């Protein structure tokens, strides 16, 4: 028995058929989840915490289980190739199909999951802007004069009253802080391909971090200092960007 024999061809065909069935099954699982996920997103308020559980479950059910099934099946198929006396380097080509598909599935689920969180973020952003009124009036605790405050602030700030000089502590609406989560999810979507590259090798980290933090800083200029510090930490860390 040798390379190119009818038995060899039949085995390759069976293996290819199995891989394409796994791919369709994967797609099917995600397609079935699409509507329930959409519904769940429309019911979100100011955070997307519950989406983590849903996506973890879905990852297990699709990418996780199907990768495992491919792994198990490959072990058997490999044995069959060996029984046919197929040389090692020819068998390697078949093994590569399985590795490529495993990697494809992992990247695809990453893109899927990032898109879902970005959709959730858009919903949450809409909800926040619907309840936080930027023109809300704040008055001095002492004299009642109107204070100038930045409603979209992320931490308590001291505001000096222009009328009487009293220092008022302004505590911003807690929901405003959720905007940080919103823009980090939208930043993930904005640089999803750079993220996937970074995950393949940390040496590729710099373009990702620059684009990611750049996006958030543009959306939240009032947090510029904070995010610039995080960016510089990453860029000066050889674990993340290489030397
Ligand atoms: Zn005052």
Which descriptors would you attach to this protein?
binds zinc ion
Describe this structure in words.
This protein is mainly α and 243 residues long. It folds into three domains: 6-131; 133-172, no CATH class; 191-241, no CATH class. The chain contains eight helices and two strands, in the order αααββααααα. The chain has a two-stranded antiparallel ribbon with strand order 1-2. Strand 1 (157-160) and strand 2 (167-170) form a beta hairpin. The radius of gyration is 26 Å and the shape is elongated. The chain binds zinc ion (ZN). The site of zinc ion has 8 residues, from loops.
Characterize this entry briefly:
The protein has 243 residues and is mostly helical. 71% of the residues lie in helices and 3% in strands.
